[in-house]
From TrEMBL:
Source organism per UniProt: Arachidicoccus ginsenosidivorans
Protein name: DUF4369 domain-containing protein
Signal peptide interval: 1-20
Annotated keywords: Signal
Keyword Signal in record: yes
């Protein structure tokens, strides 16, 4: 009897561990981008996240945001003391991981978008750490909980962000790329 009980407990634990490693999947024909912010950097800094001219949400340390969208060419960007841009080419039915890093700036933390790249050295280790942090974090979804509390400020941020992006493009500055094959 004890052997059976022990076997049942071990099976339940293993099943729980296996399911904890599962990431959400997008709806048919959609793409899913999971933005994750590590818990240890710039704890007080809130980073605003955008999909071109659409406000996505506010990211705090240790949180993550699951964003389902139409596949294709996208421009994701984030703002803190600076703005960082990432051009994305999303494939349908795929999941992409993006870290939002807060690095030391002059007065505030600066933001950096860093996509997961499966071709990099240690990619599997990075993916497992990413998933582990997401499993521990609090999931945020697009909707009323991420409502923009300062729409006037957001409109100004969008206008300034799009102007800055155009300036970078005109100067042919390097912009981070998330290609269709960088899915998990």
């Amino acid at each position: 009897m004890r052997k059976h009980l022990l076997l049942c407990c071990l099976t339940a634990i293993l099943l729980n561990m296996a399911s904890a490693q599962d990431l959400p999947r997008p709806a048919a024909g959609k793409s899913l981008v999971i933005f994750e912010r590590p818990p240890v950097t710039a704890l007080a800094v809130q980073i605003r996240l955008f999909d071109s001219t659409t406000y996505i949400g506010l990211m705090g340390a240790g949180g993550h945001l699951i964003y389902e969208c139409t596949p294709g060419i996208k421009l994701f960007w984030a703002t803190a003391e600076n703005r960082d841009f990432m051009q994305a080419d999303l494939a349908p039915d795929q999941v992409y991981l993006v870290q939002i890093l807060a690095v030391t700036g002059a007065l505030q933390a600066r933001v950096k978008l860093q996509p997961y790249n499966p071709t990099k050295k240690n990619a599997e280790k990075i993916k497992k750490q990413f998933i582990k942090r997401i499993d521990k974090g609090k999931e945020k979804k697009i909707g009323a909980t991420l409502a923009d509390e300062t729409p006037e400020r957001t409109e100004q941020a969008i206008q300034n962000g799009m102007e800055r992006y155009q300036t970078l493009k005109d100067k042919e500055k390097k912009i981070t790329q998330l290609t269709a094959d960088m899915h998990i």
